[in-house]
Structure prediction request, 337 residues.
Amino acid sequence: MRMAWAITVALALAGCSEEDGTKPPGGGPPGNGGDLGGRHFPDEAIWYQDVSAAPVAPESRAWIAALRDSGGWGNGNVFQIDFSFNVLHDDGSAPMRAFQPRDGEFYSPDCDHVQVPVPAGGALEGEDGYACTTDGDCHLLVVRGTSLYEMWRADIQGSAFTGGCLAVWDLTRVYGMEGRGDQCTSADAAGFPIAPLLFTADEIAAGEIQHAIRFILPNDRIRRRAYVAPATHGTNTTGGDNHPPYGVHLRLRRDFPLESLPNDAARVVARALQRYGMFHADGGNIALTAQGDRFTQHKWSQVGLRPRDLSALRVEDFEVIAHGAPVPVTNDCVREP
Prediction:
């Protein structure tokens, strides 16, 4: 899997587990006692822009129809939430560890081969610790100061640390149109940073999500080898020319009846989808992605959001926000300074 990212203020405009894990002492606590989700980058970053009034793309009807006719969302066309991601927060005391790149999963010059902070008591995506036992994506996401470390296919067992692509993001920077570099990979298939697009139980408890959200689609429903900004990469998907490409930005229609949703927590997410939308980031079956509650102050059971509470949302309830022309995938990465 190759992946990349570029941030642009698109033509349209003129970040379920119910674990009760405790925070371990020392080594830089993985949790921060109340994670407000994706507000990591400066306010000018594209993830935080209000697109509720942005124009609809000319291709919107055709792309939505193709997605609907090919099966809609994955998982039997159920708009379900994945709560498996962990975002770790290091106070600067965690050890910095070197890793061995995994063959076929680390790309140069796309990826960063630098040491990574590993807070005590942390966990990978979908895991109880740092060992990748399920052979999944096993993302490692760590915020340390003004840097965000995101690694795909991490696996730490004792002194052995292997990993796929690592992308280190500068959290003080508003990335330009080329992001980390055109056609360059990151730790996600469309190249986006992951943490800023994951919503949290703490945000639901606060009553508002102030950023766009990450979503995924099955590979046969994504236009083959193409992407639109703010992505700069796609993969060998098999969707036709009328299917949405990697990076597509969808918005829940303004007139969707929020009162039809089962609870206030679901309505908080839906309002964010109306105001900020959601960016397509990867291939898979569980449509929407949130942060697990292991290292947050509030738990999903407390705020009352369950994996299928947004299942009333269908593909045809969304529209495509205007964007630039689809870009062919070449994998010819040119890194930005």
